[in-house]
Specification:
The structure is a homodimer of 189-residue chains. By secondary structure, chain A is mostly helical. Chain A has helices spanning 6-23, 33-40, 44-50, 54-71, 78-82, 95-101, 103-109, 117-136, 146-166, 173-186. In chain A, α8 packs across α9. The first copy, chain A, binds a DNA duplex (30 and 30 nucleotides) through residues 1-2, 4-8, 11, 32-35, 42-46, 48-49, 52.
Amino acid sequence: MSANDLRVIKTKQALHNALLTLLSEKPLENITIAEICRVAKVNRGTFYLHYEQKEGLFEEYFQEIMEDLNNSYEEPYRAVTTMDKNQIDPNTIRIFHHIERFKMFYRIVFSKNVPLTYYYMLFDGIFSLLKRDITIHKEIHDEISIEYYSAYQANAIIGLIIQWYRQDFEDSVSTLNKQLAAILRIGEK
Amino acid sequence: MSANDLRVIKTKQALHNALLTLLSEKPLENITIAEICRVAKVNRGTFYLHYEQKEGLFEEYFQEIMEDLNNSYEEPYRAVTTMDKNQIDPNTIRIFHHIERFKMFYRIVFSKNVPLTYYYMLFDGIFSLLKRDITIHKEIHDEISIEYYSAYQANAIIGLIIQWYRQDFEDSVSTLNKQLAAILRIGEK
DNA sequence: TTAGATATTGAACATGTGTTCATTAAAATA
DNA sequence: TATTTTAATGAACACATGTTCAATATCTAA
């Protein structure tokens, strides 16, 4: 199953388009593999040649979105990790922009009947951004594991996003940034 | 479908037992509704009279576990919310004990092919514990939304638990408590 | 204890899942 | 272009899903 083979590319493209079409009509949970294949005019057996579940297909899109997240952070993500109020600049906190940009996707990611996989993809994305930055500015006391610390910070931010999602992303990005900045400031007063 | 009806109670009990039996053999994702019904000697149509998915059945167990979590916190959960290092007492942080006590369940909750529902049940459980406590000790600056703040703190703790889970809960409860205490101390130095 | 209420059953049906295998079609390469 | 390689197909299989409905068994309340 060579990834360069034109046949493979064509098949995957058809499946991608079919999934997008169906996603505009109903949630991922109500979409069946048989349905995707019917729309894509691809044999169901062929689907299983490339993916195990419909989730695997969705995952391919998610990968691209995760790249956007990484690209948003060419500069280190100082705000959370240094815990220094002088360095907190909400404008450098671009993650909320990223979520808002792809909110149609994140509505799926955070819906309760979807598998945890996507949550972990987001978690791992933020986790590595933070971990990289924490490693660079290692002002952290020895007794703290960088792994635990990164996991704590990464998931805390996702906590804000969950709260945001539950109001259907009604608040503005700047509101989220302000909330985060204010929360970080508490620890310093 | 009266909840007091002996027939209902018997049916649900049989389904519960069947699920537990099967869970000791294989992960939830590989268990089918048909299988549960075969083991429970309950008609498959009867299953659908009470639940929509096998996940709904699992959820009933989870409710009981969430009650344990709540019972662990008769006293307010001061450690995280007050952000005062003098009040941080790892022994009052009982959540990690709770997770360890039910780690066979949490291995399922955090596995990647399981729906987000359970994650949210845990999140909501911790969220309300924190929110209740934050409301009591409202030393929080006005500009912060209690909702966002609680979501942030609750999910941060779950972040630690995810990291813990990913090493199959090898670290001790006291290690987790120390990590949390140390992380909270950073914001104050 | 009996009569009425209702939960459970078994059967059937259309559809989805996941897999197999020989056949066919389309691509790579020589 | 001709040959080789391999992806895609269609058919078939056993099994799961989700639903319906009349018949039955079992509970509750009078």
